Amino acid sequence: MSEFTKDEMSTFDRVSATLKGEPTDRICIGWLGRKETGLGLPQVTVADVVRDKNGILLYKGIKALTEKFKPDIITVTTYTTVEAVAIGTKDKYFKDQLPAPVEYVIKSPEDLDRVHIPDPRVDGDLPCIYNALRKVVRDFGNYAPISAGTVGPFSVAARIRGLWDISFDIMRRPWFVHDLLKFATDACINIIEGWQSAGATGFTSGAGSETVLSPEHFRQFCVPYERQYLQSAKKMGFLSYSRHICSGPSADLVVDDMTRFGLDEMPTLVWGYYKDAATMAQKKKLFAEFSPCVAVGGTFRASDQLAYWSPSEIEAEVNRLLETCYPGGKYVHVADCCIPPATPLENIEAFVISAKKYRPK
Ligand SMILES: [Zn+2]
């Protein structure tokens, strides 16, 4: 089938057609992060990459991945507490994995009066993303859609307060959770304004914290604020929305309520954890009822399958997954969550190449 041996569509046309469910020359390859934080120069650690205010190391990691694997979507980001750290949460940094929080900035309701909305050009480790984004847009802006974002209002609130404490607050003093969420929503909106000025055309949202909520609490504490974040992004002129579902205990339940975010005509990718391929195929149909341009992707487990399996096992699993999820399009080939920085390159190669070669039977 010689017509399938090379790419016939531009990256932009492929992404656009994929989200709308129109035919494409091959599967759309999504974000390959956060592998980029583990590439770069020898002797460079993940801690060096994510704290480099000039964004040069992150840019080099993204450039290396983009040139090697030619994904269809580029996302510029570092770690999932980066917004909270810019607000005052303290993280521990590691050599070969992403930073993790050790002390949350909001210890009591009064602390909320002492923090300020972060400026992505100067605060915490956000300048790394801002400056890398400008370089990535300069070099790859004509090649692929480039997005950047935040973990979204609920996850930012959980990362400045702590997941245990915000769970306590939800049960005992919900008014305070709403105060936290108003602040977190303003922070997310201000951050993506910075990303837009640096040249991002797509914006992203979502992390694990909201997938510990019950569907009822998700509707109360996540949906209204995510809607506001999404509406602001639309007004700013962002062209696409990438929404992550992380693999928390309620992930496959709350995903249904993501239809309440107000997706309308916004080209959207809802990616991440869908439990299994059949569930993802079924949710693809569900989203199609709410918006004409929502694609799904994910389910391939990054933290164990992609990081530790052999390339041939990965290839077999990619084929198995695509047989169920690819028919009818509206599918982006992406892992279920961040690809660990230390994942072997040959595994990512098997993950990407087997999908690019795949054709429906
Ligand atoms: Zn995740």
Helices and strands in order:
Layout (H helix, E strand, L loop, with lengths): L10 H10 L7 E2 L16 H6 L4 H14 L4 E2 L6 H6 L2 E3 L7 E4 L22 H15 L5 E4 L3 H9 L1 H10 L1 H24 L4 E4 L9 H7 L1 H14 L3 E6 L5 H4 L13 E5 L4 H12 L5 E5 L3 H7 L2 H15 L6 E2 L11 H13 L4
Parallel strand pairs: 1-10, 2-5, 5-6, 6-7, 7-8, 8-9
Antiparallel strand pairs: 3-4
Helix pairs in contact: 3-5, 6-7, 6-8, 7-8, 8-10, 12-14, 14-15
Bound molecules: zinc ion.
Summarize the structure in short:
With 361 residues, the protein is α/β, with parallel strands linked by helices. 46% of the residues lie in helices and 10% in strands. The protein has helices spanning 11-20, 46-51, 56-69, 82-87, 126-140, 153-161, 163-172, 174-197, 215-221, 223-236, 251-254, 277-288, 302-308, 311-325, 345-357; strands spanning 28-29, 74-75, 90-92, 100-103, 146-149, 202-205, 240-245, 268-272, 294-298, 332-333.
Q: State the helix count.
A: 15
Can you tell me the CATH class? Alpha Beta
How far apart the termini lie comes to 12 Å
Helix content: 40-55%
Find the structural class using helix and strand composition.
Answer: alpha/beta
For the structure shown, list the relevant keywords.
about 350 residues; alpha/beta; TIM Barrel; 15 helices; globular; disordered N terminus
Question: Overview of this structure, please?
Answer:
- The radius of gyration is 19 Å and the shape is globular.
- Helix 12 links the parallel strand 8 and strand 9.
- The strands form 3 sheets. It has a 6-stranded parallel sheet with strand order 2-5-6-7-8-9. A two-stranded parallel ribbon has the order 1-10.
- The chain starts with 10 loop residues before the first helix and ends with a helix.
- It has a single domain, classed as Alpha-Beta Barrel (TIM Barrel).
- 46% of the residues lie in helices and 10% in strands.
- It has 361 residues and is of the alpha/beta class.
- Helix 6 packs across helix 7, helix 6 packs across helix 8 and helix 14 runs parallel beside helix 15.
- The structure holds zinc ion.
- Zinc ion binds next to loops.
